[in-house]
Design brief:
22% of the residues lie in helices and 40% in strands. The protein is of the alpha+beta class. A hairpin with a 2-residue loop joins strand 3 and strand 4. It starts with a strand and ends in a 5-residue tail after the last strand. The protein binds cobalt (II) ion.
């Protein structure tokens, strides 16, 4: 069950410049910064209402986000929906015929469990499922 939009992911070239816009000009509180080496990103999470904006600066041109930016430019990268049980949701969506990027959930920022669905089976929208860690 997809519950609410947890966050939108935005691919940026310069996370400090993006923070100047989202935190300082838009006024969204910055609640988390994390370098996720295995995903190749420097990430920042900001609060907006009950949801978040996730800024993603690639750690290099060969990372997934780095390739995304060189193909499509900076901008909207993915939409993430909160789920109660990411494993169960993945299994249900896989059996419904959706193509998965992650067959198994992996660890996202703030200790969440996340999995991505392939945009070829979601109308071109890179879609993430997020099961927050307890307390988030
Ligand atoms: Co995300």
């Amino acid at each position: 069950m997809l519950e609410v939009i947890d966050h939108v992911g935005v691919a940026v070239e310069d996370i400090e410049a993006a923070l100047a816009l989202y935190r300082d000009t838009f006024g969204m509180p910055l609640i988390h910064r994390e370098k996720v080496t295995e995903q190749g990103v420097d990430a920042a999470l900001l609060d907006v209402g009950a949801g978040h904006v996730e800024l993603l600066q690639p750690l290099g041109p060969e990372t997934a986000v780095g390739k995304f930016i060189s193909r499509r430019g900076t901008g909207l990268h993915h939409v993430a929906y909160r789920v109660g049980d990411v494993q169960q949701t993945l299994e249900r969506l896989a059996s419904a015929g959706l193509r998965l990027i992650d067959e198994q959930p992996r660890i996202g920022i703030r200790g969440s469990r996340v999995a991505f669905l392939h945009p070829t089976s979601t109308g071109g929208v890179l879609t993430e499922l997020v099961q927050p860690a307890n307390g988030h």
